[in-house]
Amino acid sequence: MKKSIKDFDLNNKRVIIRCDLNVPIKDGKILDDNRIIQSLQTIKWAISNNAKVIILSHLGRIKSEADKKNNTLLPVAIRLSNLLGFEVKFVNETRGSVLENAVKNMKPKDVILVENTRFEDYPFKKESSNDENLARYWASLGDIFINDAFGTCHRAHASNVGIAKFLPSAVGFLVEKELMMLDCVVNPKRPFVVILGGAKMNDKIKVIDNLIEKSDYALLAGGIANTFLTAKGYDLKASLIDEESINHAKELIKKYPSKIILPVDGYASTKYEDNLKVNYYLLDNVDDNMMVLDIGPKSVDIFSKYIDSCNTVFMNGPVGVSEFSNFEYGTKSIFEVLKKSKKIVVIGGGDSAAAAIRFGYKDSFTHISTGGGASLEYVEGKTLPAIDAIENK
Ligand code: AMP
After folding, report:
1. Which residues sit with their C-beta closer than 6 Å to ligand 1?
2. Looking at the predicted structure, is the pLDDT value of residue 139 above 90?
3. Which of 35, 95, 332, 343 is catalytic?
4. 180-380 has the same fold as 5-173
5. Residue 42 C-alpha to ligand 1 middle, in angstroms?
6. Is pLDDT at 313 greater than 90 in this prediction?
7. 35 is catalytic
8. Is 200 one of the annotated active-site residues of the chain?
9. Which CATH number fits domain 180-380: 3.40.50.620, 3.40.50.1110, 3.40.50.1260, 2.115.10.20?
10. ∠ Cα 147 151 155 (to 5°)
């Protein structure tokens, strides 16, 4: 078990908290502050325990000088100040005398937000390559390191893995909750059902293998299901199919003949667009030039029988193109079935988490993960480097 922020006496200590404040920003305006809100519990705990709080976070990717202009954390500092009700001091550099003086002048309960850690990625990729000197420098600013950025825990960067080597370390409340909740899926109460949707099978092949093996039933949808259906001899015409993965899908069907459950009907258009005519099809009878972009009611019925018969569900990826109102039916319906089922339901991060929140299911499930790649790797049973780097109790 990992050390928790609660295990340290924070009084008068310089506490570096690695948060995930990577929020969508357009023209300087924050479009969704969910990640800032999710980080508050740990920040507030440190403040109430009289710490000097130094926050590190990344924002977007930095591959040029121009990227720096568009990815400053300044708007986040302003929003964080509003949410906390006092001024968070924003330091517009990732190292240097301004930062060092700001830290030197801190009093207990002060909060500093340091500029985007990935500014160190241009031109030398120091953050993403876990540069040891950079990690040592950031560590020199604090007395204790807290990792509360679950979304980056599958990456070994200077601000999460490197820094932990040089300071006493623990996880924050957000990471602690993620690990506890995702453990419901790592060691599921059976029967265990996984729902795997999304676009490209190729991107997630290891995860798919792993989760199908681990589950009692795997309900497949989206581009993944299209590829499996094609492997079974269906002709889905213009639908998204991963040609390279068809043989692999055939092997999985052979290996798990009764575990893999596929949709039988769906909604389709002629293009990957939202405003065209929508046709309903049984999937053994799709017209030429049509692209299946969502599952239909018969598939929802089949999936709901498996959901009702299980104890734990893990869902990754929307079952249709839920960003388009024409094709949100399947994903919304499955969320509704999951909500009513009262089972242990964990939604993996990324697109399915965003859809759950967008459709009003934020508080309907056991857990919605804040980390896409990180939650998948953890559920797969992989060690997350940034968790591994934290001290054990
Ligand atoms: P992923 O990143 O693999 O989880 O994919 C998420 C994306 O898959 C979302 O943008 C969905 O719109 C898309 N998606 C879901 N179902 C389909 C489908 N039947 N055809 C094409 N894209 C899909």
Report:
1. 197-200, 203, 222-223, 240, 292-293, 317-318, 320-321, 323, 350-351
2. yes
3. 35
4. yes
5. 34
6. yes
7. yes
8. yes
9. 3.40.50.1260
10. 80
pLDDT value of position 276: 96
Q: What is the DSSP letter of 94?
A: S
Nearest residue to 181 (alpha-carbon basis) of 312, 57, 310:
312
Q: Is residue 349 scored above 80 in pLDDT?
A: no
Amino acid at 347: I
- Report CA(287)–ligand 1 centroid distance (Å): 21
pLDDT in tens, 24-54: 999 999 998 989 999 999 999 999 999 999 9
As to burial, measured by CB atoms within 10 angstroms (0-12 exposed, 13-18 middle, 19+ buried), residue 382 is: middle
115 Cα to the center of ligand 1, angstroms:
33
Does the predicted model carry a pTM greater than 0.70?
A: yes
Distance between Cα 320 and ligand 1 center (Å)? 6
Task: Please identify which of the residues 223, 317, 350, 372 carries the catalytic annotation.
Answer: 350
Q: Which atom of ligand 1 is nearest to the CA of 321?
A: 12
Nearest C-alpha to atom 11 of ligand 1 is from which residue? 321
- Write out pLDDT tens, residues 252-274: 999 999 999 999 999 999 999 99
Mean pLDDT, to the nearest integer, of 177-191? 96
Q: Which atom of ligand 1 is nearest to the CA of 292?
A: 19
82: its two tokens:
């509003």
Give the CATH H-level superfamily of domain 5-173. Phosphoglycerate kinase, N-terminal domain (3.40.50.1260)
103 with 141: CB under 8 angstroms? Answer: yes
Task: State the Cα–Cα distance between residues 331 and 369, nearest whole angstrom.
Answer: 17
Q: How far is the CA of 222 from the centre of ligand 1 (A)?
A: 6
Evaluate if residue 203 carries a pLDDT over 90: no
Q: How many helices (H) and strands (E) does the chain have?
A: 14, 17
Domain boundaries, given as residue ranges, for the chain: 5-173, 180-380
Q: Is the pLDDT of residue 374 over 80?
A: yes
Q: Which amino acid is at 368?
A: I
Give yes or no: 373 in active site: yes
